[in-house]
Design brief:
Chain lengths: 143, 757, 152
């Protein structure tokens, strides 16, 4: 069932999909996308890699255990929620930091907005990515 | 027992004693203020929306109990440190006992009914842990569980009563409730019954008394502290606490008098019959609780004075006697009346403590017990049924005198009747300090009853009866009156019974042995409960997935369809004018996919059909303006197909014959659920839609959360906490799946042909 | 259009229920996938259908144009889809493992934890002392007998 075309292609497609997944994650706040979608794309990329080459190779490529990625993501999401506590705001209230000059005519107070909301979305991305990879790898290894 | 060699360490051994002593000192410092009629209080909001506060208030009644709890607690903890010296689990024991003491203090100081209930349950739980402390012994575990169930069940009734009181009075604040009174409220009857169940289970009134003698399975310091001086008085405390708002009615008077009187007489007869010193003391505790309840039934100054005085004196002498029995048990290895004797010479200090405490218990001047008994007799004369109350008190007190003789004279002053398991010698100082101090207090306060009157009795009486009440005066010599005559009769009859104790015991053994045993009934009840649980589990959880599912779906179909039919809420005929051909094709694709998945016998076909359905649903999301959802749905469908395809490599055909069988009954049920769903949805669609939340999100998404994709802003900002919970679920699902696959090795080859590797 | 979707959801639900009532647990899991889809559509439909107006704010604007699709049910459905996937994956792997251990996909024959009453009586007599309190024996011998019995 191992096709040479799939095996050769899987590596490049996987890399492309990973880049795309990060793109989807980052643009999510303003256009369709976000942590859930990004994470699913990333997980699918590694599922493809595992099917095209082998789970062992996919695991090597990932370097860390996927379940650790998922749990780390959960921790990051929690941290994003706790960041509100520094300002005395309610748990999970968004915190914003605007870098760069003010952009006229918009509500955005800086050219590069950073926020705890983005951190939270990254946590969601890692959770979904790690969980999907965990499930697919485990299932593939059973066969 | 490791004897004096063992050490318990500073933290476990001495810290609890220090805590208790510090608390005692603190409460002593509050005494003058309380005696002056003030009630120091602190309070925090707890559940303001329900009108529940978390507060403490130190009034006379609370202070009396708090002094007893912390003072006796300090002595008992000191005692335990020597009694269980070197016990490997002493730290655990000290923790339980200290927690119990703090919970008990919380109970008596609580200013709010709900806080009181919480502390009440905490005492129940810590008491359970302490009774079952010797957990290797199944009997000890069983008795602990019995105490937990009986008192816990009573507490549930009490909680219901508290809620009724809260609704009737409009507040949970005890002082406010007592100021308003509940006697005239239409729910008074129900409230009274529920309160009595709670109080009578905790304070072990007949017929709910059977757990208390069994609770003596605990180590002796626990019995001394919980089951004579403090916890069992919790029920009495509750009745005294709510005395202003519940007392004064016929129902209150009769129920407390009858139950208290019956308990007092029954328990003193039982006490006379016991040959184990600890069991005898356990039943005299029951008798004291009965007497306290009886006295609370009345509302005269004399009765309440007698209540407060007897409460104090009983705690002093009973704790002392339990501790003495603990010393005897510790040093000789037995508690049997028939064996013990001749301990005066080897254990003189213990004998002195026993004698003083027993004299107080028997009510002999000049001890405090005498004064309390005098006032109790005097209150009987003022009561609604002087003859009944006086006769009950007389009968109980006569037997108390006899039991006091059995406990204090037998082991020390009579000759030894057999070889003792251990050669007796005097107990260590830490074990003597408690009983000697408590017994000496009984004597000292009898000679000088002034402090008891000022700081303990008067505040209790005034708190219960209001500022106009007149407490009786505590004094040793009140002249020749009816009470003194009754005291003399009591003493004479008591000594007579003691002299004839062998015959009395045999007679009681015959008479009481014939009674049905509530303890055995309890075991039968528990066995029946377990059998019922097994029976109903087999009915409800037969272990067949199909039955569970069918039950669920039948209920859903009946609840949905039935309620729509009953209420006549069937939707109007839908308007289908806006249907476009493209959408019909799309929906038709989804429908066809699902029908095919349901009825095909081929695994691959079913998987493909599921894929068609999923992608059709994704397209529906695209058509109806949900790009984020559509992308998610597409990706998830892809992954589902991948996982199913992998699984199918290892799984057998769907049907052994290769052809699916049609199941008409299942199809009928499925159709009913499906039609019900459609009807509900149609009805929902014909209702107006509340868009206020959506409008808020649309308006706030950019100005407040700086995001242009409203769906994502809702997910990661407005509802971030929900999303956090949801991703936690995803992680849990992944981790548990992983664990499921990793931890158990597959057992290939068991199954039918085709699955072998 | 919304009414027609409601009818379709009814059909999806009916198919899902029919599948979930089957003895074969693989069919049960197919039913699980279908009923998740149906539930998601219910939530989506509850917020009403709007064609061609996704809930996005144009660049330069501070609010979406009026008449845009309802964003709230979309957010709810999005997480529901991902959680539904987690549930599906867990159920699939549970079933997979059950098949590997018990050798059957028939839910009527999966009786490891709750043996049939007729078999249970025999197990109790064999494995349990007469005065044991636990009425639900789950000893290893009983489990192994069950599993091999099911496989026969």
């Amino acid at each position: 069932m191992r096709s040479i075309i799939l095996r050769t292609g899987a590596r490049y497609i996987c890399a492309l999909m990973l880049v795309f997944s990060v793109y989807m994650l980052l643009r999510g706040h303003n256009e369709p996308g976000g942590g859930f979608i990004g994470g699913l794309i990333g997980g699918t990329a590694f599922a493809l890699y595992a099917i095209g080459c082998s789970v062992a190779e996919a695991r090597r490529a990932l370097r860390v255990l996927p379940q650790n990625v998922a749990v780390a993501g959960l921790g990051i999401a929690l941290l994003a929620g706790l960041m509100a506590g520094l300002d005395g705001d309610a748990f999970f209230e968004g915190q914003w930091l605007f870098l760069g000059g003010e952009v006229p005519g918009t509500y955005s107070k800086g050219a590069l907005p950073l926020s705890s909301v983005l951190v939270f979305d990254i946590g969601v991305y890692l959770v979904v990515f790690g969980s999907v990879a965990t499930l697919v790898f485990a299932m593939e290894e059973e066969i | 027992m490791a004897g004096a060699q063992g050490r318990n360490g500073i933290v476990a051994g001495w810290l609890p004693v220090a805590i208790a002593a510090a608390l005692f000192a603190f409460f002593v410092s509050l005494a003058p203020e309380v005696a002056a009629g003030r009630a120091p209080a602190v309070s925090w909001d707890w559940l303001p929306s329900l009108g529940i506060a978390f507060g403490f208030r130190v009034d006379g009644l609370a202070l009396t109990f708090a002094l007893l709890i912390s003072g006796i607690g300090a002595l008992v903890l000191l005692y335990s440190n020597a009694y269980l010296a070197g016990h490997p689990q002493y730290a655990r024991f000290a923790l339980f006992l200290t927690s119990f003491m703090l919970a008990m203090l919380g109970l008596v100081l609580a200013a709010d009914l709900i806080a009181l209930f919480v502390f009440w349950e905490l005492t129940t739980i810590t008491s359970y842990l302490l009774i079952g402390f010797i957990h290797e012994d199944p009997k000890s575990r069983r008795n602990a569980l019995q105490a937990l169930f009986v008192t816990g069940g009573g507490a549930l009734a009490m909680l219901a009563g508290f809620i009724l009181i809260g609704m009737a009075a409009g507040t949970f604040d005890i002082a406010a409730i007592n100021a308003a009174g509940l006697q005239a409220h239409p729910w008074y009857g129900a409230i009274l019954v529920l309160m009595l169940i709670g109080a009578f289970t905790k304070s072990a009134q007949v017929p709910l008394h059977f757990w208390l003698p069994n609770a003596m399975a605990a180590p002796t310091p626990v019995s001394a502290f919980l089951h004579s001086a403090t916890m069992v008085k919790g029920g009495v405390y509750l009745l005294a606490r709510l005395h202003p708002s519940l007392s004064g009615t016929e129902a209150w008077l009769w129920s407390l008098t009858l139950f208290g009187g019956a308990t007092a007489v029954f328990a003193s007869l039982q006490a006379m019959r016991q040959t184990d010193l600890k069991q005898a003391l356990a039943y005299t505790t029951l008798m004291a609780l009965g007497t306290l309840v009886l006295l609370l039934g009345q509302s005269t100054g004399y009765a309440l004075t007698a209540f407060a005085a007897f409460l104090v004196v009983h705690s002093l002498y009973k704790a002392a006697l339990f501790l003495v029995v603990g010393c005897v048990d510790h040093e000789t290895g037995t508690r049997q009346v028939g064996v013990l004797g001749g301990l005066l010479r080897p254990m003189p200090a213990t004998a002195l403590a026993a004698a003083l405490a027993a004299l107080s218990m028997a009510g002999i001047p000049p001890l405090l017990g005498f004064i309390a008994k005098e006032i109790a007799y005097a209150s009987a004369a003022q009561s609604f049924a002087p003859l009944l109350v006086a006769a009950t008190l007389l009968a109980a007190n006569v037997l108390m005198v006899a039991v006091a003789g059995v406990v204090a004279i037998g082991p020390f002053w009579q000759r030894a009747r057999g070889p003792l398991p251990k050669a007796p010698h005097e107990a260590p100082w830490a074990m003597l300090a408690g009983p000697l101090l408590l017994a000496a207090l009984g004597l000292g306060l009898g000679l000088l009853p002034g402090p008891v009157q000022t700081y303990l009795v008067d505040p209790v009486v005034l708190g219960a009866l209001g500022p106009g009440a007149v407490p009786a005066e505590l004094k040793l010599w009140a002249g020749v009156n009816l009470a003194l005559v009754l005291s003399g009769v009591t003493l004479a009859l008591g000594i007579a019974v003691w002299l004839a104790r062998g015959a009395a015991r045999r007679a009681l053994e015959r008479a009481l042995g014939a009674l049905p045993s509530l303890d055995a009934g309890w075991d039968g009840f528990m066995d029946g409960l377990k059998a019922f649980a097994v029976w109903q589990t087999r009915i409800i959880q037969g272990g067949r997935l199909r039955v569970y599912m069918a039950t669920m779906f039948v209920v859903v179909a009946a609840a949905v369809g039935g309620s729509m039919l009953l209420r006549g809420a069937l939707p109007a005929w839908p308007d289908l004018s806006d249907v476009t051909p493209q959408n019909v094709v799309l929906l038709g694709l989804i429908g066809a996919g699902s029908v095919l998945a349901a009825f095909t016998g081929s695994r691959i076909l079913a998987m493909a059909a599921l894929g068609v359905t999923g992608i059709g649903v994704a397209m529906t999301f695209i058509v109806f303006s949900a790009p984020d959802v559509a992308i998610t749905q597409l990706l998830v469908e892809t992954l589902i197909v991948v996982l199913v395809a992998v699984a199918l490599l290892r799984l057998p055909q769907l049907d052994p014959t290769g052809r699916p069988s049609f199941r008409p009954w299942d199809a009928a049920l499925a159709a009913a659920v499906g039609i019900g769903t459609t009807l509900v949805l149609l009805a929902v669609l014909q209702q107006p839609l509340d868009l206020s939340l959506t409008a808020f999100f649309e308006a706030a998404s950019y100005p407040e959360a700086f995001g242009r994709n409203i769906v994502n802003v809702i997910l990661v900002d407005f509802r971030a906490l929900d999303t956090f919970g949801e991703i936690a679920v995803v992680v849990i699902a992944a981790l548990s799946s992983y664990a499921l696959l990793r931890t158990t090795a597959p057992v290939w080859g068991r199954g039918p042909g085709g699955t072998r590797r | 259009m919304e009414e027609l979707t409601a009818v379709l959801i009814g059909l999806l639900t009916a198919c899902a229920v029919y599948l979930m009532l089957a003895r074969n647990v693989l069919r049960f899991i197919f039913g699980l996938v279908l009923i998740s889809n149906a539930a998601n559509l219910v939530i989506f439909l509850g917020g009403r259908l709007t064609a061609g107006a996704p809930p996005l704010i144009e660049s330069g604007q501070t609010a979406p144009p009026p008449g845009v699709a309802n964003a709230l049910p979309q957010a709810l459905v999005l997480t529901a889809i991902v959680i539904g996937f987690g549930l599906f994956a867990f159920a699939l792997i549970l079933m997979f493992r059950a098949h590997a251990t018990l050798g059957t996909l028939d839910s009527e024959e999966m009786r490891l934890a709750e043996p049939r009453p007729d078999l249970r009586a025999v197990d109790e007599a064999d494995a349990m002392p007469a005065d044991a309190e636990d009425p639900m024996p789950a000893t290893d011998e009983a489990a192994t007998d069950e599993a091999s019995g099911a496989a026969r």
